Amino acid sequence: MIYRKEPGAWLAVVFAVSLISFINIDARLVEGPFLTGSFHGALVFNEMALDGDRLSGFATAGSGQIVYASYRIRSIEEQQRLQELGPSAELQVSGTFTEPRKPAHQYAFDMRGYLERHNAAGMLEVESLESAISGTGFRARLARQRSELIEHIESSFPESLTVEAQALLLGDRSGMDAEQARIQRTLGITHLFAISGLHVGIVTGMIYFVLLRLRVRKESATVLLLIVLPLYAVMAGAAPSVLRACAMVVLVLAARLFGLHVSAMQALSASFILFLWMDPGLLQDIGFQLSYGASFGIIASLKLMEGASFIKSGLIVTAVSQLCLYPLLLFHFFEISLSSFLVNAIYVPLFTLVILPANFILLAASFLPLGVDAILFAAYEPLRNWMEGVTSSLAGLPNQVWTPGRPSLGWLLFMAAGVLLFFVQAEKRFRLRLLLVLLIPALLLALKPYIDPRLHVSFIDVGQGDSALIELPYRKAVYLIDAGGVLRFDGEPFQERSRPFEVGRQTVVPYLKARGISRIDLFILSHPDADHAEGADEVFEELAVELLHITPGSEANALMTELAPSAREARVELPMSGAGWQVGDTEFSYLSPEDELYEGNDDSLVLLMEHQGQRFLFTGDLESEGESRVVERYGEQLADMTVLKVGHHGSKTSSSQLFLEALRPQVSVVSAGIDNRYGHPSPEVTARFGELGLRLLSTAENGTIRMTIEDGRVTVDTSRK
Asked: Residue 267: what pLDDT?
């Protein structure tokens, strides 16, 4: 191993400091409960975010504790005053500490974990803002300078180049839309748009070259770099990858200044210990894990590049960084890009030699007089737009992303052991069959659903909406019923957010991908209400859908018309009552609607599933009149139902006495949002279930509810215990 080449004294120091550091980390990570109660006092924001009518960010309270604060802006005038403060500010506020909301499921964003990673003591909902002044101090000035540079790029760069320049030069990715992010994930080039060692290396090289050309002595140039690099790290957003790269370069340069030699591995391990000592929460940060994982892999594979050409070395670096990170990529993102190996072999040199230097040059030119920047933009913009078109076309090619799902902790360790074993053996002698050591754990993970004899039904917590997932035994088919959605109400223009919450992309899709699902055999939209179908376009964008079922007559609905372009690759059918099919031992049949005229909730697609003697009824937003018709036609077939998906989120217009008495379900599930404005489920409905002695679960209280049928028995598991 590469560590064997390090001096014994250094290894002893690394081991001793690591041991003390991790003891320190363990002690500091044992935190008490989050703050509760009211708050009145000052909050100091180093960098607060303003998006529409929402101000948010981490701030330091008067007690010195870090809190996550958010405030709903009341007017456009207040929004403008806050924008004038800049990113760093001191606010005098009153508010209440609230408990972080539990995630929709184990694969969704976890606010509590987010607060813990940032060493926050609580989450403060600001109710009144009494005064606000701009921040002072050196860090505040740097934050303000960064904000001004971001605004300068927006005003001086062509619109087509602005977002990329802000991301590449200053680490600001807020302007990137969902489609750009999807293209980058598909091709595995997301890392190129985040400031990392590549950027720091170019900045260091450019500054050093200019200083030497200005006849600055090497020692003086090194000292200047030791000052400039930490400032650049802060100006670039202080992401873990930037801090890691800058720290490594600073350690190597500082040692050289004193005539010492520090190897890349020594610099990597020393910076790793230093950052964890200062902030133990970084250990849980995705960027921190990926940055150090990739760096370790590249350093550990240096022997493989001995004597290799520039192109071959680039291919090895790309392959190694992707292979050594794949366990972490699967754990956090549930999928890996298969095309990234080839794409990065082209794009890494392209960004290194052309795109990154060009953006630095264009930024410098934008401050020069005489229209120098206009000439450069005229030459560069068409070239970059052409390359962007090629990138989009590449991302449109099928089967580029492999989605085996999220590994458990034990499986993650199994994969990590394979990666470590690969590097140990490859350093001695690389052979192609060593790749099996890497691939076998991932292949076994991907095969798990195809040897699973159980049937799974998940009622996904999408807030005030509906979404249910059916996974047939041995992964013979995957069905998704509805995709949730956000009911958006008209508001003032200043309230619009640049990145509104998307329940399909941020809740439904992660759940499916974490389950190893990249293809939906049948997507059922029970009816065209926003809380059932608004998230469908995001599902179509992220996953392959073979067949789409919609209720007859709804195809002309405005929401369905908007959805049509996204659903163009799916085959569309309009089933009615009596339609059905069978897959293995599982039978499906539609009980509603009875005609081709869509008139509202009572024309929802109602699906009955039967498997090993257990029956599930999915009712969409069926109301009492529709329930009566279903009971009249199928009453005997529905008696003693196993599971009922309660119609219309438990509204008082649904779950009639007649319907519940006819079905007598063993378990019923209400899909509704926490503290929703409609009061779902209605107290009348919950009382009706109670009087009949029927078990009722709610996604608002229980989170995502997963049921499993095995050997004719149903087990229930919830994400909120």
From this structure: 82
Q: What tokens were used for 541?
A: 């964008």
Q: Between 600 and 210, whose confidence is greater? A: 600
* CA 436 to each of CA 424, 431, 440: distance values in angstroms, whole numbers, following the listed order: 14, 10, 6
509: Cα separation from own chain's centroid: 10
Question: In the chain, what is the straight-line distance between the N-terminal and C-terminal CA atoms, in Å?
Answer: 45
- Model confidence at 338, in pLDDT bands (50, 70, 90)? confident
When pLDDT is averaged across residues 283-297 and rounded to a whole number, the result is 81
Token digits of residue 619? 């009712």
| Distance from C-alpha of 27 to C-alpha of 625, rounded to nearest angstrom | 61
Exposure string (b/e) for 119-143, b if CB count within 10 Å is 16 or more? bbbbbbebeebeebeebeeeebebb
Backbone angles phi, psi at 237, to 5 degrees: 100, -5
Cis? peptide before 158, omega within 30° of 0: no
Gap between the Cα atoms of 672 and 460, Å rounded: 10
- SS3 string, 583-636, reads ECCEEEEEEECCCCCCCCHHHCCEEEEEECCEEEEECCCCCHHHHHHHHHHHHH
pLDDT digits (tens, 9 = 90+) for 88-120: 899 999 999 999 989 999 999 999 988 988 889
Task: Give pLDDT, residue 306.
Answer: 66
Would you tell me how many other CB atoms lie within 10 Å of the CB of residue 151?
11
278 neighbors 313 (Cβ within 8 angstroms): no
Alpha carbons 447 and 630: distance in angstroms, whole number: 40
CB 233 within 8 A of CB 242: yes
DSSP SS3 for 36 = coil
Please name which of 129, 41, 42, 48 lies closest in space to residue 86, comparing C-alpha atoms. Answer: 48
Is it the case that residue 2 has pLDDT exceeding 50? no
Q: Cα angle vertex 282, ends 39, 301, to 5°?
A: 170
Report the relative pairing of strands 336-337 and 122-134 from DSSP bridges: unpaired
Question: Mean pLDDT throughout 255-265?
Answer: 81
Q: pTM of this prediction?
A: 0.90
Sign, Cα dihedral of 345, 348, 351, 353: negative
Q: Examine the pLDDT at 621 and tell me if it is beyond 80.
A: yes
The token pair that represents 508 in the structure block: 């439904």
pLDDT at residue 5 tops 50? no
The answer to whether 582 and 610 are in contact (CB under 8 A) is no
Q: What is the DSSP letter of 462?
A: -
Cβ atoms of 524 and 572 within 8 Å: the answer is no
Q: Whose structure tokens read 């992220």?
A: 542
Distances (CA, A) of 634 to 278, 481, 550, 592, 628: 66, 21, 22, 10, 10
The confidence band for 177, taking pLDDT boundaries of 50, 70 and 90, is confident
Each as own residue / partner, the long-range contacts of residues 23-28 (CB below 8 Å, 24 or more positions apart, any chain) are 24/277, 24/280, 25/276, 25/277, 25/280, 25/283, 28/280
E strands in 102-146: 122-134
Torsion of CA 96, 97, 102, 108, to 10 degrees: 90
Q: Which tokens belong to 69?
A: 């604060």
pLDDT in tens, 132-175: 998 888 888 888 888 889 999 999 999 999 999 998 888 888 88
The mean pLDDT of the chain is: 87
Query: What separation in angstroms does the CA of 562 have from each of 187, 484, 567, 605, 652?
Result: 27, 16, 10, 20, 30
> Is residue 321 within 8 Å of 297, Cβ to Cβ?
yes
DSSP run (H or E) holding 319: helix 310-333
Q: Report yes or no: 387 and 295 within 8 Å, Cβ to Cβ.
A: no
Query: Which residues have C-beta within 8 Å of that of residue 15, sequence separation ≥ 6?
Result: none
557-566 contacts: CB < 8 A, separation 24 or more? 557/528, 557/598, 559/528, 559/529, 559/530, 559/533, 559/534, 560/525, 560/528, 560/533, 562/537, 563/533, 563/536, 563/537, 566/536, 566/537, 566/540, 566/541
How would you label 605-629 residue by residue, b for 16+ Cβ within 10 Å and e otherwise?
bbbbbbbeebbbbbbbbbbbebbeb
